[in-house]
Amino acid sequence: MEIDNFTIVVATGAIVFVLGTLFVFMWQRDRRAPWLGWLALGYLMGALATLFLAPRGNVPNLYSMGVGTAFLLLAFGFLWVSCRVFAGRRVIWLPIIAAPTLWMSSFIITGFSEMVGVRVIVASLPAAGFLLMAARELWLNRDEGLPSYGPAIGFFVSAGFFFAFRIAAVGLLPFPIGGLDLHPAAMATFNFVIFFHAAFISFLMVSLTKERHEAAQRTLAESDVLTGLPNRRAFVSDAERLMRRQKNIHSPLALLTLDLDHFKLVNDRYGHDAGDRVLGEFAKVLTASLRYEDLRFRMGGEEFCCLLPGLTLREAHAVAERICDTFQSTAVEVLGGTVRCTVSIGISSTDICGYVLEDLLSEADAATYEAKATGRNRAVLAIAAPKVPVPQTVGKVTEIRGRRRA
């Protein structure tokens, strides 16, 4: 049994309408995802386009091909907007309005509605542009690291290339793929390609939304609310991963353990709000003093930790000295006065500990203890040496080389 073109177009439109309606419900339930609203608008515009395209041949071309294709271009424009909003960028209305407007304006040209090849080119150019721009928006945001970015980009590129292919096939293939006379097989193929991409793009955009929400939950679980830094839980996973990477590329890794001096006195004298301010300012000092690739963590209380990939023990010592100097000169305004605090830092490196996280951390802890015991407000190196008993310290105790401060 042969299925006519009208049935094919209506069936495609019905499926696209269902997808658009589902996106409306999803957007209403999750207002944190405004891109779902734009995606719904795109799919509903596509469904509306089929209402005009389906009766082609029974109504004037101005209404079927003209208005129908205009709605189709709006649909592609809103797909681009949904990707743009997903990537955190603002909506640009000019291309969305210009594409269908220029398309409809073309019907003013005498005989344009009968120029099948020209119509295919004029309609396919903005369609391909919107789809490839959608892929570009996701590509620019791929550093977010969501697993579905790659497939989503691939499907948008594939859809864009399909419409670009229509331009190249104008004189070779029948309409609606090319510009020759309409053929049922070409119509079926065209609608299958549209449906195939629409279905997978909808699935992948939902996957991206889910993955982003899950990533946000993980970040919340592994972040310190007060300072915004990753917490001890994040340290365990990130440190092991970084340690493996540095070992594989034969590059050193330095570790700093940092402990604010006399922090309990700040809490006792000025209150816990003042202590929170001090912790917040110290987190800012860490961020300003370290490189982009360096990792910093709040381990709990007044204790912090930093991982410095690619730095030797001596190079990390220079970084620690800079942190000490900067924090010592930082004035924290609190209720009842101004507070200036200092920090004691212990430094270890894979240069002396090897690529074993427990050893790296224990050596740095031992050096931090020595920094506290020998005057505070200093950065101390842990250098391999015979074991010496140190209270509450695990692992080897190291030769200490630091400098006193006034």
Give the topology, please.
Blueprint: H1 5-29, H2 34-53, H3 61-86, H4 93-105, H5 116-140, H6 149-168, H7 184-221, H8 232-248, E1 253-260, H9 263-270, H10 272-289, E2 295-300, E3 303-309, H11 313-328, E4 331-334, E5 337-340, E6 343-349, H12 350-353, H13 357-373, E7 379-383, E8 399-401
Parallel strand pairs: 6-7
Antiparallel strand pairs: 1-3, 1-6, 2-3, 4-5, 7-8
Describe the structure.
The chain is elongated and about 95 Å long. The chain has helices spanning 5-29, 34-53, 61-86, 93-105, 116-140, 149-168, 184-221, 232-248, 263-270, 272-289, 313-328, 350-353, 357-373, and strands at residues 253-260, 295-300, 303-309, 331-334, 337-340, 343-349, 379-383, 399-401. The chain has 13 helices and eight strands. The chain is 61% helix and 11% strand. The model is unreliable at 384-406 (pLDDT under 50). With 406 residues, it is α+β, with helices and mostly antiparallel strands. It starts with a helix and ends in a 5-residue tail after the last strand. The protein has a six-stranded mixed sheet, sandwiched between helices. The protein has a two-stranded antiparallel sheet with strand order 4-5. It holds the Pfam family GGDEF. This is diguanylate cyclase. It catalyses: 2 GTP = 3',3'-c-di-GMP + 2 diphosphate.
Summarize the structure.
By secondary structure, the protein is of the alpha+beta class. The chain contains 13 helices and eight strands.
